[in-house]
Amino acid sequence: MTFSTTTTDDGARRAGTSLPAPGRGSRGRPAVPVLAGTESRLLLRHPAFLAAVVLYAAFWIYDLVPGGAAHAYPVLQDESWSVHLPLLLLAAGVLLAANQGVLRSHRNMTEPMYDVLVVGRSRRICAHLLSLLPAALLALLLTAGRMGYLAGRSGAVGEVRPWDVLAGPACVLLAGVVGVLLSTLVTSAAVAPTAVVGLGMLTFAGAVNTSASWRWFGLLAFENENAAPLPAALVHRPAAAHLAWLAALVVLLGATAVLRAGGRGTVLKATTALALAAALVAGFTQTRGLSAADTDQVSAYTDHPAAHQRCTKENGLTLCAFPEFAPWTTQWAKVARGVLAYAPGEVAGAPYTIRQRIFPPGGASSNGQPPPLTEWAADDSRAGTPKAVTVGTDWSDGAAGGDRRSDAVVEFATGFAYRAVTGDVPGRPRLTMVCGARATLVLWLAGKATPGTQEALRSTRERTFGGGISLPLLNSGAGLSFEPRAADFAFDLIDRPSRANATVIKKNWAELTAPDTTVDRAARLLGVKAPPAVPASGQVAGC
After folding, report:
1. Which of 32, 109, 464, 531: CA 20 to 30 A from 328?
2. Rounded Cα distance, 91 and 99, in Å
């Protein structure tokens, strides 16, 4: 007895059924979308993708829960691109899952059976490409949730940049397309992990070369994470061109995968050609450097910030900030009032100005270069705010993991205390050495200003070698440096109750702030024991 394996039209009619039309399923629905829906469900349940989602969630939880202070004052134009770092995990998971999904029939040795289907190989590849969309949508939802959380923080400033935000989900989609394309080129299961490693190395190379224009050819283009944020008007990232480049690559590689699978047709070939042209144009556009107008704008904000800021007055304080950073002025004022709380009336009641500044231009590493102190002094004089205390574009509630945000709090608190103690601001292109009783008093006032400044000051000391404390101004070559013995004495006083010293400090303010008052004399005035004397070989030059 033999059985026929072929169903003819007459046999189908006798059985009361009909064959599906080419490209359609048994119920008359388009076969490609149906297959895409099935493959998308398989992809979302793939172990590689699920592991990536778990790692992404763990990354987010670890980043937010233990160090909430690190995200209390997010700058949204920076968060718009840095939010994508954990999305690289999703991109890797999608690439692996998509590649293994296409190669499933090869692994199971069922590829010859697909030859009898009404849906050819090129249409199946189209279905696999469409199956990537839910994963990309999930990446978009996760990104939107993260940005919504950050934008909802009471200390959030700046603006969300849509083109930067969309780049992360586009990378997830692109990684999936790469996985599908690789399956049409090589049937080995080892090629996808190799591609993940290769893309990871390319992205890492771009992350450590943040000034190189070629980094935009990676999945994501990162900026220097150690640089302070810039005002939104100075963020000249070619994010739109980069997103267009990613989109063009998605279309180009997807169309190439369909062609490799046997796809034909004028529309497919024209789409491939247009995507290639768009990728070339967008790739060239995204690597162009700053224009002359952009460079001039950065220099204007750096050297003459007063013309681009809004100032408010509060209890004798003039607070000047770039417009989007204005919500932070209440925090600056809180620290300033905390410093002045221990000063005598004539000092506490004097007018003070706090001015936000950026340095170096472009937010890159300053490499110890001196800031434009002469230009800043002239700018303050023209604005009627001489000897303004500098504050940067970073902020936190305290020791936010001992990062640059906590250093910014210490830098401002000590800078304002130095202004109250000496009546001046650092004016040397290099570090200004603060010695004796002045150094002790400046550090004590800064540490006692708020609980956050005290926590940040302790964090700075724990990361300082040699006993002294150096606080560069906006990561430049200028700033303040405190001799070790005076710093030790200051921390001894910080550990004592504030009221025990406040009255004595106010009473002896003139002598404690004199440049020639020593640590030993300050200890006698305060009625406490001075720290051990430093041998001549260990004394700091300039003190």
Report:
1. 464
2. 12
d(CA 210, CA 44) in angstroms, rounded, equals 33
Burial 457-467 (b: 16+ CB within 10 A, else e): bbbbbeeeeeb
| CA separation for the pair 519, 522 (Å, rounded) | 5
pLDDT in tens, 335-372: 999 999 999 999 999 999 999 999 976 545 555 688 99
Q: Which carries the bigger pLDDT value, residue 499 or residue 21?
A: 499
In 82-147, beta strands by DSSP E: none
Separation CA 89–CA 48 (nearest Å): 10
Q: How far apart are alpha carbons 427 and 196 in whole angstroms? A: 51
Token output for 319: 């607070």
- Look up tokens 């944020």; give the residue: 229
* Residue that the structure tokens 């202004």 belong to: 419
DSSP summary character for residue 75: B
CA distances in angstroms from 186 to 42, 46, 49, 131, 493, listed in the order given: 21, 21, 21, 20, 70
First to last CA, the chain: 109
Task: Confirm whether pTM is higher than 0.90.
Answer: no
Let me know if 440 is exposed, middle or buried by CB neighbors in 10 A (0-12, 13-18, 19+). Answer: buried
Q: Which long-range contacts (CB under 8 A, 24 or more apart) does 491-498 make?
A: 491/443, 491/447, 491/458, 491/461, 492/528, 492/531, 493/440, 493/444, 493/526, 493/528, 494/443, 494/444, 494/447, 494/448, 494/454, 494/457, 496/528, 498/342, 498/448
| 4, 70, 92, 93, 102 from 82: Cα distances, Å | 62, 14, 18, 20, 32
Tell me: the pLDDT tens digits for 40-92?
999 999 999 999 999 988 888 776 665 556 678 999 999 999 888 889 999 99
d(CA 484, CA 200): 44
Within 10 angstroms of residue 337's Cβ, the number of other Cβ atoms is 16
Instruction: For residue 109, give both structure tokens.
Output: 């040795």
Distance CA 471, CA 459 (A): 13
Six-digit token string for 518: 């020593």
Q: Work out the percent of the chain whose per-residue pLDDT is above 90.
A: 58
Mean pLDDT of the chain: 86
